[in-house]
Design a protein that fits this description.
9 helices; elongated
């Protein structure tokens, strides 16, 4: 039925839009994902969403503790619309819930920590899917995430300032590793089944009142 609905809905968008959806989906990846822990500045949150979307990172995992996760639409430019966001906020043990969920999916947990004890991003081996964890603006990642991480990495810096702004850190790390996985012999793209599901979701988001159109189609088919 999904394939049938895709065929039907594709008539409601322009050929140019359809080509764009299919083109972008070829560059989407879940080999790399991003974890955000308790960010509170909406401009940073929104900039990170925009960065993830631009680099083709499909999934973002959001841990909320003291701060609510809020997106500033003028900064994100609607980027969050095209991402799969996973929120962890209703469980007091949500950090462990998030990390355990990612590990069960085969992700290596990478804590971004600007410390001399961390290895440089250039030393990190790309042998398994990776979840890069970024912490709150003032204090960085919690000790809990760092303790659960498989590896701690840092971005090489040569100035007096201790660390980058979080949105800059995400951009630097994603830029480096997205280009790296595309150059190496790594199966980083989505499966055909994942692409179909995502394409169906994007079609619905691209069409005004798509749910109403689908309901009418199913009603006409007596489904």
């Amino acid at each position: 039925m999904q394939k049938e609905l895709i065929t039907y809905l594709s008539d409601f968008i322009t050929e140019e839009r359809n080509r764009k959806l299919k083109e972008v989906i070829q560059h989407r990846t879940r080999f790399i994902t991003v974890v955000l822990e308790d960010l509170y500045q909406t401009q940073n949150i929104s900039a990170v969403m925009r960065t993830c979307e631009c680099f083709g990172v499909q999934d973002v995992h959001i841990i909320e503790k003291e701060n609510d996760f809020q997106i500033h639409s003028a900064i994100s430019m609607g980027a969050n619309k095209w991402l799969n966001l996973y929120n962890y906020k209703n469980n007091h043990d949500n950090i462990r819930e998030c990390i355990k969920n990612l590990k069960n999916k085969g992700y290596q947990i990478i804590a971004t920590v600007p410390s001399e004890q961390s290895i440089s991003i250039h030393e990190l081996a790309l042998d398994t899917p990776m979840a890069f964890c970024f912490g709150t603006e003032l204090t960085g990642l919690s000790n809990e995430i760092v303790d659960m991480a498989d590896q701690c990495v840092r971005i090489p810096m040569y100035g007096f300032t201790e660390s980058f702004n979080i949105s800059n850190s995400v951009a630097i790390i994603l830029s480096y590793f997205i280009e790296k996985i595309k150059k190496e012999n790594i199966n980083w793209t989505l499966s055909e089944a994942e692409k179909e599901i995502l394409y169906f979701e994007w079609l619905q988001k691209s069409i005004k009142e798509s749910s109403l159109i689908i309901d009418k189609y199913l009603e006409a088919r007596n489904l």
